Amino acid sequence: MKRISILLPLFAGGCVGTATSIVKAPFQVAGKAVDWSTTSQEESDRNYGRKMRKAEAREGKERREYEKRCRKEGAECRGYDGYVARD
Fold first, then answer.
1. CA dist., res. 3 & res. 31, Å (int)
2. How far apart are the first and last CA of the chain?
3. Is the pLDDT at 48 greater than 80, yes or no?
4. Distance from C-alpha of 47 to C-alpha of 59, rounded to nearest angstrom
């Protein structure tokens, strides 16, 4: 009888661990869904940086085309007043 009472807490611990896992599972799934549906600050910063680099590249291209057109026409062009990158 003493041997059974010594081993009983070991077996009961496994049951408690399993029960805890079953209870925690829905909350863990809900947490993952929230993580997948929201944008982290790092991801937001990365997306903003990408957007700004594209805008700056577009502005640079427009500026080069404008300057090329001015040189071809031989006319005196005022300063570039085209696209300005903004958020």
1. 43
2. 75
3. yes
4. 18
Buried b (16+ CB within 10 A) or exposed e, 27-43: eeeeeeeeeeeeeeeee
What is the Cα 36 distance to its own chain's centre? 10
Instruction: Specify the residue for token string 């982290």.
Output: 40
pTM of the model: 0.45
Residue 9 tokens, joined: 């807490």
Which pair of structure tokens corresponds to residue 66?
């404008």
Q: Tell me, what's the pLDDT at 15?
A: 64
- Those residues with Cβ within 8 angstroms of residue 10's Cβ, 6 or more apart along the chain or in another chain: none
pLDDT exceeds cutoff 80 at 19 = no
Q: How far apart are CA 51 and CA 53, in angstroms?
A: 6
Specify the amino acid at residue 47: N
